[in-house]
Design a protein that fits this description.
The chain has 176 residues and is of the alpha+beta class. It is built from 5 helices and 7 strands. Helices cover 16% and strands 18% of the residues. A hairpin with a 5-residue loop joins strand 5 and strand 6. Bound molecules: iron/sulfur cluster (SF4) (3 copies).
Length: 176
């Protein structure tokens, strides 16, 4: 399956601009994402009462209140185990398990990666339980990382350990 990353914006104005929400580029707050099983776009902002129940429920402590109190995932604190505690705690059903995957986010490695600069590093691959990250030998004998988007769950386990902050979680959609 071919996959491509998407940074599409909502056509309607939301309480927080959708692209800002996904990328966290407002008020200097970086790398913020909605919790797993969040409703899409406007529906999430309308349903979420900013009660913080999901934040309290998360055993990994990776959720925190972001801009205007909306819950956000902070992968610098750890990884999502997809335990579902946040979803079950959400009484207004702003987080709702409808039998689909928890979210459509995947890891993406940017050009600050040490391995792409011919420095030996495989920290991210060592952190990935699903073995979504592999290293392909490149010219010069160094290996560069590649992410199999079919295996990546977007759990974020690779993000905090990366010594150069080279891994981002990005929304993606399969190509038809
Ligand atoms: S699924 Fe579990 S680990 Fe992931 S954000 Fe929700 S409560 Fe936290
Ligand atoms: S941990 Fe970071 S710097 Fe190291 S190979 Fe992975 S993406 Fe590159
Ligand atoms: S986000 Fe999780 S599954 Fe995806 S590459 Fe990183 S550690 Fe592996």
């Amino acid at each position: 399956m071919n996959l491509r990353f998407s940074r599409a914006q909502s056509s309607k104005q939301s309480p927080i601009d959708r692209a800002q929400f996904l990328r966290g580029n407002w008020r200097g707050v970086a790398d913020l994402l909605p919790p797993p099983w969040a409703l899409e776009d406007e529906a999430f902002f309308k349903a979420c009462t900013q009660c913080a129940e999901c934040i309290t429920a998360c055993p990994e402590n990776i959720l925190r209140a972001g801009n205007k109190g909306y819950p956000q995932v902070d992968f610098q604190r750890g990884e999502c185990t997809f335990c579902g505690d946040c979803e079950r705690s959400c009484k207004p059903n702003a987080l709702l398990d409808d039998g689909q995957s928890a979210w459509s986010y995947r890891a993406q490695i940017n050009n600050q990666c040490l391995a792409l600069k011919s420095v030996m590093c495989r920290t991210c691959a060592d952190c990935c339980d699903t073995r979504a990250i592999s290293f392909q030998l490149a010219i010069g004998g160094f290996a560069s990382p590649e992410i199999n988007l079919n295996n990546c769950t977007g759990c974020g386990a690779c993000i905090a350990p990366c010594p150069t902050g080279s891994i981002e979680i990005t929304k993606y959609q399969p190509e038809n």
